[in-house]
Design a protein that fits this description.
single chain; mainly alpha; 8 helices; globular
């Protein structure tokens, strides 16, 4: 697979994650329930794909960061898929809720994306300010999930904004123009 195709697929998966999971969750319990499930599970496949395709790119200069990012994306996909499955199964007596699994998945994504954002900055894969926004956004994502678990929903929603801005900009860059100086230096 060419790197340009790789980056476009990663970018599309990043951009698709918001509508797939968000709209999919909204459709659960409606007449479009099956479509909602399909969208939520497609999101899980998409976020795992991001990790699988991004790991070798990061690993060229930062193997440990690439592996951490892959594990974070795989865990996110599994935990989000499990969160939907648990909500849909209505199994009584479970010791973990679908919301808790979602929050764990997001915390794992946040923690695992911090080394990736540092790599983005160091490698000049994207503009430094965008990498810094990603780092800040993932720290805020972790804080948002902690706030949500503590019942502070309004604070939680506000904290999600920097990470959402980063992911939209990063996804668009990968789809529309590919990476920056790093790709030129390493002949990607």
């Amino acid at each position: 697979m060419s790197d340009i195709l790789r980056f476009r697929i990663i970018g599309l998966c990043i951009l698709a994650a918001f509508p797939l999971f968000g709209v999919g969750q909204a459709l659960l319990g409606t007449q479009q329930h099956g479509l909602g499930l399909l969208m939520c599970f497609s999101n899980s496949v998409g976020v795992m794909t991001i990790g699988l395709l991004m790991r070798p790119v990061i690993a060229r200069t930062a193997p440990r960061s690439g592996q951490i990012y892959l594990v974070a994306r795989l865990a996110e996909g599994v935990l989000l898929g499990m969160s939907v499955t648990i909500v849909q199964s209505n199994v009584m007596g479970l010791t973990v809720s679908g919301e808790a699994l979602y929050q764990l998945g997001m915390i794992g994504l946040g923690l695992g994306s911090l080394p990736m954002c540092l790599w983005l900055i160091k490698s000049k894969f994207v503009p430094t300010m965008l990498g810094a926004l990603g780092f800040t956004g993932y720290v805020c994502l972790i804080a948002a999930m902690i706030a949500a678990a503590s019942g502070a929903e309004t604070t939680s929603m506000t904290l999600l904004l920097p990470g959402a801005a980063f992911e939209v900009m990063f996804g668009l860059i990968l789809v529309l123009r590919g990476p920056g100086k790093w790709a030129q230096r390493y002949a990607l």
